[in-house]
Amino acid sequence: MDSNPPNQRDAVKLLARLGYASRGVVYLLVGGLAALAALGQGGQTEGSRGALESVLTAPFGKVLLGIIALGLVGYAVWRTLQALQDTDHHGSGTKGLAIRGGLLVSAVTHTFLAFFAAKLVVHIGGSSGS
Q: How many domains does the chain have?
C-alpha cells in the first residue's frame, strides 16, 4: 500500500523535464542551422525564432511545435519557481538576488519564445513560407 498519488511536485518535475528537453531541441535546431549555413548548405542563422519556424516544414511540424511550446512554458514555470521560492538556495543577499533575477529574466524570455511557437501553430494556415 505504498502507492502515492501524483502530487504537485511530480507535475512540476515533469514540466521542468519537458522544458529542458524543449530548450535542448531549440538549441540543437539553432546549432544545426548555423552549421548548415557555415558549410554553405543553405541553412539560415536566424536564431531561436528561425529555428522554430523551420520545424513547421518537418512532418507533423505543427504537433512538434506545439509540444515544444508546451515544454518552453514548463521551463519558464520552473525558472519562475526557482527564482521565487529559491529552490537552489541562492539566498537573499546581493549575489543571490542577482542570480534569482537572472532566473526570472530567463523565465520571461522562454515565455515569449513559447508564445511565438504557439502563435506559429495557430497562425500557420494564413501564410506560406519559403
A: 1
For the stretch 88-105, pLDDT in tens is 899 999 999 999 999 999
Residue ranges of E strands in 55-102? none
Which of 110, 122, 104 lies closest to 19, judged by CA? Answer: 110
Separation of CA 70 from chain center? 8
For the stretch 11-69, pLDDT in tens is 878 888 888 898 888 888 888 777 777 777 665 556 787 788 888 888 888 888 888 88
Quick one: which of 16, 28, 27, 24 has its CA closest to 73? Answer: 16
Q: Assess if residue 2 is contained within a domain.
A: no
Q: Is residue 3 a part of any domain in this protein?
A: no
The answer to the question of residue 40 being in a domain is yes
Threshold 0.70, pTM exceeds = yes
All three cell numbers of 17:
523535464
Tell me whether residue 104 is in a domain: yes
Identify the burial level of 20 via C-beta atoms within 10 angstroms of its C-beta, where 0-12 means exposed, 13-18 middle and 19 or more buried: middle
Give residue 21's domain range: 8-125
Which DSSP category does 5 fall into? P
